[in-house]
Task: structure prediction
Amino acid sequence: MHASTRFLAFALAAAALPMALPAAAPAAPATPQAPSPQQSPSGQGNGGCTLIVHVTGFRSEKGDAGGTIFSSPIGWPEDSAKAFEHGPFPIEGDHATLTFQHVPEGRYGVAVIHDENMNHKLDRNFIGIPKEGFGFANNPHVALSAPSWNASAINVACPTTTTDIKLIYK
Result:
């Protein structure tokens, strides 16, 4: 196959993928902690637990940290209409703390983006590679598409569960 044909085939395949993402380092497992006073932006949760997500690696304070939690694989990872809860959170330096309150105990997939232009989605270039930072709970290995919900899910227990996510930029 000619080199330009191989590139075109790669570009078309990458554009068809829901997300083209690199590998990430493993994170510390979720651990219980004391409750946080911050409220999740949407306030839609109705359980008694708090999920705190510490996100590091922001390349700037521009924009927001967009956090989304899914109670099932349906809509994972980008259909926020099918998420259990989502919202923007402020960035402070190179980190952000996302606090989701009133979350029922259970298993949740967690995805975060650095929404630099605050348009509430992960922007991509012409071949589908993310232009903004992104990350997932458990910091799973990511090849050519987003990790599965299962690979990015954590168990939320009361009163508080915390997890750490390191952002990735292409």
About this structure: The CA atoms of residues 8 and 127 lie 10 Å apart. The chain has one domain: 3-166. The radius of gyration is 16 Å. DSSP finds one helix and nine strands in the chain.
